[in-house]
Design goal:
The protein has 2 domains: about 130 residues, Beta Barrel (Lyase, Ornithine Decarboxylase, Chain A, domain 1); about 230 residues, TIM Barrel, CATH 3.20.20.10. Helix 2 packs across helix 3 and helix 5 packs across helix 6. It is an alpha/beta fold and about 400 residues long. Strand 3, helix 3 and strand 4 form a beta-alpha-beta unit.
């Protein structure tokens, strides 16, 4: 059973563990999911790869998320075992024949994504030319405006997408087009550009039943990010402008769960403006390396919170690899010291999901927290000046 605490400072005082901690705040996940479901004019799928912790999946399901973007047979098994009435969609464009067959015949998966003729043939063969398939073609679109671009690996150009859709229509009960503009997209117009491309493909292919606008909606790490409503408005306007009558779906991951968890890492050594932690890039803090110092962070001592963000620090993880570094500026109280804890907020997405056992540092605790958001985001809050 996962222990629950009323707040982070109380947890640090009473728990005082040696290992890193992931603190999940289910009430914040529920609130965010309800907002997204209410605002998006179509089906909302949760991207399981973002965070597959049972508490997270169960909380999203309780909040009304019934469909899940699964990218592997293991994710499908996990969701179906935990949430028997959930609907899984196999949204990875490249899958093994064995995974396709198990997904279809054992777990009831009907919706599959493809971006190549051989993948189409593989799906048809593995499912025994099933008449109730739902086949989606993944379209390559520009990644401009995304913090983490996803171009180059998946997706096909318009001409091949049209041919693939025609193939899909010959066997599938329903068809769709999907794309992904990139992770942590900060430009709503990126969805307009992608829909412009998709609309041309859909028209040339004679229409489809579904348009999947993917994920990439940003979490509010700094307060500068456009709100979800701005993306929905752009998507809705583009769909209406092209006269698309297909059903919409989206696949948010980061947006739904980012603010629903924090990672707590203990300072093992302070060396000037460098803090060496018991968690890092190979653990729960990979996003601090790849997304950068955008996350709200505070220092906690066993006696309470250390106030202020008046000094910039660089952070280092516990492994022997020099890659295990998280360059700043990470603004913290100037008196942070050995034995203190850092709470890195907005870490519900791609934190524990990316944790490895490199150098033997995989272990961590998971707790539940009942407190609210402890930080107030202000635009460009990471640009605070360092105290003299």
């Amino acid at each position: 059973m996962i222990q629950s605490y009323g707040g982070a400072p109380a947890m640090i005082r009473s728990f005082a563990p040696e290992l890193p901690i992931v603190g999940i705040r289910p009430h914040l996940i529920r609130e965010r999911a309800a907002q997204v479901i209410d605002r998006f004019p179509g089906d909302v799928l949760y991207a399981v790869k973002c965070n597959d912790h049972p508490v997270v999946l169960e909380t999203l399901h309780a909040a009304g998320v019934r469909e899940f973007d699964t990218a592997s047979i293991k994710e499908i098994r996990r969701v179906r075992q935990l949430l028997p009435d959930a609907v899984c969609h196999f949204m990875h464009p490249v899958k093994s024949s064995e995974a396709i067959a198990e997904a279809y015949h054992v777990h009831g998966v009907r919706r599959f994504v493809l971006d190549h003729p051989r993948e189409f043939a593989k799906i048809v063969q593995a499912t025994g030319s099933a008449p109730d398939l739902e086949l989606f073609v993944r379209l390559a679109v520009p990644g401009d405006g995304a913090l983490l671009t996803l171009t180059g690996k998946f997706g096909t150009g318009p001409a091949e997408a049209i041919e693939l859709l025609r193939l899909a229509k010959s066997v599938a009960a329903e068809t769709g087009v999907t794309f992904h503009v990139g992770s942590q997209c900060l430009t709503p117009v990126a969805f307009e550009r992608a829909i412009d491309i998709a609309a041309l493909v859909i028209a040339e292919a004679g229409g489809v039943d579904h348009l999947d606008v993917g994920g990439g909606f940003p979490a509010a790490y700094t307060g500068d990010e456009p709100p979800f409503a701005a993306f929905v408005d752009v998507i809705t306007a583009a769909v209406e402008r092209h006269g698309l009558e297909c059903r919409l779906q989206c696949e948010p991951g980061r947006l739904l769960v980012a603010d629903g968890a924090s990672v707590f890492a203990r300072v093992e050594l302070r060396r000037g403006a460098a803090l060496y932690l018991n968690d890092g890039v190979y653990g729960n803090l990979a996003e601090l390396k790849w997304v950068g110092p955008q996350f709200p962070t505070r220092a906690l001592s066993v006696d309470g919170q250390r106030h202020g963000r008046d000094m910039a620090f660089d952070l280092f993880g516990p492994t022997c690899d020099s890659i295990d570094s998280m360059p700043g500026p990470h603004w913290l109280a100037a008196d942070v010291d050995d034995g203190d804890w850092l709470e890195i907020g907005m870490m519900g997405a791609y934190s524990s999901a990316l944790r490895t056992d490199f150098n033997g540092f995989a272990e961590c605790h998971t707790v539940l927290l009942d407190d609210g958001v402890w930080f107030a985001l202000e635009p460009s809050h990471q640009a605070l000046p360092q105290a003299a």
